[in-house]
Amino acid sequence: MSKKSRQPKHHSLTIKSKVVLNRIVEITNNSVKLEINEEGTVTGKYNGTQFSTIENISNQDGTSTWNGRFIQMTAGATWWFQLVAAQLNP
Predict the structure, then answer these.
(1) d(CA 50, CA 78)
(2) What is the DSSP-derived secondary structure letter of residue 7?
(3) What is the pLDDT of residues 59-82, one digit of tens each?
(4) Which of 15, 40, 52, 54 could form a disulfide with 36 if both were Cys (CB 3.0 to 4.6 A apart)?
């Protein structure tokens, strides 16, 4: 008797977006703070529209911090997401 192994169910989404606005929020001697606004589509498990705002602080030493807020809207529901403090260090 063979047992069927259960594979975790994966749901994929494809997000295609474009930048609609870049804004320089603050410039200091050591860093630049930018705000990037995007809009696009979500397809896959569900279909809808996505809007996002990404805040980026780029430091003179090459490091940066990213914070993002996302909203995805479909015909039946709306989801909000927030990505907090992704850091890049070269």
Answers:
(1) 10
(2) P
(3) 999 999 999 999 999 988 887 777
(4) 54
